[in-house]
Amino acid sequence: MKLVYSNENNFIVNNVKNLIEVQGIETFLKNEFAQGAVGEVSVFDVWPEVWVVDDADFDRAIAIVKSSKGNDNAEWVCEKCAETNASSFEICWNCQHENTESI
Description:
Oligomer: single chain
CATH topology of the largest domain: Alpha-Beta Plaits
CATH class of the largest domain: Alpha Beta
Order of helices and strands: EHEEHEE
Strand order of the largest sheet: 1-3-2
C-alpha cells in the first residue's frame, strides 16, 4: 500500500477517495477516526489519509488527484477596470463588476 493523499479535512479526503475509486482503483482510508488523539500525538499524524491497495495503481491515483485540483491559482482580469482578481472572486474587488469569463 502507498499513501496517495492526506488533508486535515475529512470531506476533502473522502472526495479524493471517491474520485480514485470511480476509476476502478481500490483504496483504503487510514486515520478516519484518529482526530480524537490530537494532543497525545502530532496533529499531522492524525490527518485522514487515502492509500492505494495495489502499488501498481499509485501513479494513476496521483494523476487523478492532480487533475482534480485544477488551477486554483488562476486569476482573471476585470473587463471594466482591468484589475487583476483571484480566481475565487466572482465579482471584481475594485469595481464590483461580475466576472463574465466563468459564465
